[in-house]
Amino acid sequence: MHPIPLPPLFAPPPADVPLATVPLAGDGSPPYVMYIQPFTDVQNAAEVKKLLMAGDPRVPEMTLVDASNILDIFQLQLACTKALLSQRDNTMTTRTLYAEILFNLCPTNKISEAFRKFGIADTSTAVLAVMVGQQPPSAEIQNMLATLIKGTPVGVDSVPGLADVKAVNKIFKLGSGQRTRNETLSLVIGTMALKGIMS
Amino acid sequence: MPDTQPPVATLIKQGAEARVYTIPFAGRPAIVKERFRKAYRHPTLDEKLTSRRVVQEARCLHRIRRAGVDTPTVYLVDLKASTIYMEFIDGISVRDHILATSPLNHQHERELATKIAKSLGVMHDMDIVHGDLTTSNMMMRAGDNPSLVLIDFGLSFVSTLVEDKAVDLYVLERALSSTHPDTDSFFQAILNAYAKNSKGGKPVLKKLEDVRRRGRKRTAFG
């Protein structure tokens, strides 16, 4: 799996300390890292989804994301960071960190909708396996993943190519105006960041 | 991948309400704006006020971004730490731009004024009042045909009142005349373009006349 560092968070210094620089996230523990493995040409999405939902022991703990709504890894990094933040503050909406990641990807506040739109679906052909941890997943877990999903493992670079920009526009209600892909990504990111505090 | 150096946040601006740092954020340059505690306020009140202002700022930034005005993209809001993480804008402030290219030629002045007026028009049509319009709070992205970016929504709020929007423009007029003394025509050009480009522009300009006569604050008597 490919390690993607998560952004370290800023811990404000006391107001009376006029520091020019502040080290980020220096609490001694190893930082959380996101591990991601994209698969294309997935043939058994329906089966995997069933096992995942049943909590089958053959399925490692992870989030399986349908690749079509992910324009950029940045979306996943932010969803993970937000999930870890909610875990820290005890403000999680869902019961597990992995469900929280899916929930954070979705612009609406309905958990079931988040699962339906961003989680693996019966018809998914491109899927991203996402894990978060302070240690990389063991070889055993990686083997479990490889035997579970019948598809082609590909590099992280291919993630943008698996996205369906039209579907993203629809889910995030961005209208159909002409804009660059980066601009669309910015609007998606902003909407994710403002989720829960917008209204 | 081994880290060569621990990432640090570098202070770039300190104000009365907040500090702004530049930080690396998921491989992108970002800034983090931290509203700090006020020791003189009651802790409970302080917490409420601070978190409300953080939320308000993030909302205003995002709402007008969605409406098509260029603003820094909000990356993350950490209410507990009263911080907003947002896009680092690569560019220069309109203030520095005007100072560097002074005197502005007529054509350029008109283009810049139109860009500013368009952004302000869309913003006001969405009933968002910036609250601190100065040329330092407007930036131009680096590159050809740079888009105009409105920044620092720390004092912004939602209002449908023509009065508030007029005061917004008045603040800009005063800021312009103090930072860029020979630019009367520039502000006039902004007003002309504002009238053309915003739906509710006419009444605001009319109100601006009143505001000019009496100043930013409404009279406290009667």
From TrEMBL, chain A:
Its main location: nucleus. It comes from the Eukaryota. Signal peptide: none annotated. GO terms for cellular component: cytosol; EKC/KEOPS complex; nucleus. Gene3D superfamilies: CGI121/TPRKB (3.30.2380.10). It is found in: Nucleus. Keywords: Nucleus, tRNA processing. GO terms for biological process: tRNA threonylcarbamoyladenosine modification. Belongs to the CGI121/TPRKB family. Component of the EKC/KEOPS complex that is required for the formation of a threonylcarbamoyl group on adenosine at position 37 (t(6)A37) in tRNAs that read codons beginning with adenine. The complex is probably involved in the transfer of the threonylcarbamoyl moiety of threonylcarbamoyl-AMP (TC-AMP) to the N6 group of A37. CGI121 acts as an allosteric effector that regulates the t(6)A activity of the complex. The EKC/KEOPS complex also promotes both telomere uncapping and telomere elongation. The complex is required for efficient recruitment of transcriptional coactivators. PANTHER family: CGI-121 FAMILY MEMBER, EKC_KEOPS COMPLEX SUBUNIT TPRKB. This is EKC/KEOPS complex subunit CGI121.
Automatic annotation (TrEMBL), chain B:
GO terms for cellular component: cytosol; EKC/KEOPS complex; nucleus. Its main location: nucleus. One of its GO terms (molecular function) is ATP binding. InterPro entries: Bud32 (IPR022495), Kinase-like_dom_sf (IPR011009), Prot_kinase_dom (IPR000719), Tyr_kinase_AS (IPR008266). The keyword Cell wall biogenesis/degradation does not apply. Residues 6-222 form the Protein kinase domain. This is non-specific serine/threonine protein kinase. It comes from Geranomyces variabilis. The gene is TP53RK.
